[in-house]
Amino acid sequence: MTKQKIVTFGELLLRFSKLDHLRLTQGDMFTSKYGGSEANVAVSLATLGEDVTYITRLPDTPVGHAGVQCLAQLGVDVSHVLYGGQRIGTYYLEPSAGMRPAKVVYDRANSAYFDLKPGMIPWRDILKDAAIFHVSGITAAISQQAADATFEALDIADELGITVSFDINYRKNLWKYGADPRETLSKMLSRCDMMFGDAIEFEWICQRQQPPFTATDSHFEMQMDEYREWFDDIHATWPRCRHWLMGMRNMVASNHHTLTALLWTDGELLQAPIHNIPDVIDPVGVGDAFMAGLLHAYRRFPGDKQLWLNYSLAASAMKNTIPGDFNLATDEEIMNLVEGRFDPSTLYKTIE
User: Distance of alpha carbon 101 from its chain centroid, rounded?
Assistant: First the structure.
């Protein structure tokens, strides 16, 4: 029987924000939502009908159990979540407004995931019937022991012949334990088969500047010859990875973004249409929606690489309209956007 399960691995977080775009220093009431990159991918995949298992370590407290219940209610298999440690990791988000950029403050030190060590998770049992293992650079950024546990999982995934999906997810403020982030993430990249990153992350890992994406309308022309040369060089550096997805976003204003993507796949470079999103509700998790969209389309539409790209971009565009970390867009909604079957009076529209 063909393996179908997708396994994602990372830290589940509690996200706190003030209401009505207040600054973190204003007001006296926070709202909270569960999230985290790999959990976001798991929820999106479950919403799209995939068989997905999420692995993390959480405190054996009501807060930890509430996070597991949240994911379970959204269709994610959480039967292998490990309990231990004292606290859940958190972050505080101050959304952008006008010319004021967004601000994120992390509080993840000594969390249950921070103290995760190799040998704690029975990876062979979990991965034995998995088709895809998804992980991100954040899993190796939190602590040395969490990085070691991540590479343990990658070793076993390799041993079992599982396709590895990787989101570079470089977060400068998380790397505090002394490891070199570029060296560590490069090692992870060398062991993956599918990769996602935004344009800034691609520039950072490659240490090479690319043409800027400054689209405000459909007349923007991508410098595809230059990108093709750029991606060919990237693949030569990390030859195992066959599918490279790069998301590109231009913030016209704090709540008005344009979004597109490029997919280099088996030597072919594909371009997606440009989406115009004039009323962004919540951009958190947009990259995770990209990755989940690619994984789902890769399995649902074998061989149709342009559709993989267009689907993943549409999933990401939809996420901008949904509050919270999770992309709850359905397959029908995403396909409506891909195929142009949507009402232009809704929150976003495709530039034509």
Answer: 21
What's the CA gap between 323 and 282, in Å, rounded?
A: 5
- Return the structure tokens found at 257: 């973004």
The pair of structure tokens assigned to 65 is: 């159990």
Say whether pTM exceeds 0.90. Answer: yes
| pLDDT by residue, tens only, the chain of 352 residues | 567 999 999 999 999 999 888 899 998 899 999 999 999 999 999 999 999 999 999 999 999 999 999 999 999 999 999 999 999 999 999 988 888 888 999 999 999 999 999 999 999 999 999 999 999 999 999 999 999 999 999 999 999 999 999 999 999 999 999 999 999 999 999 999 999 999 999 999 999 888 888 888 667 888 899 999 999 999 999 999 999 999 999 888 888 899 999 999 999 999 999 998 888 998 999 999 999 999 999 999 999 999 999 999 999 999 999 999 999 999 999 999 999 865 544 444 444 4
Long-range contacts, stretch 27-35, CB < 8 angstroms, 24+ apart: 30/92, 33/323, 33/324, 33/325, 34/66, 34/67, 34/70, 34/71, 34/325, 35/284, 35/285, 35/324, 35/325, 35/326
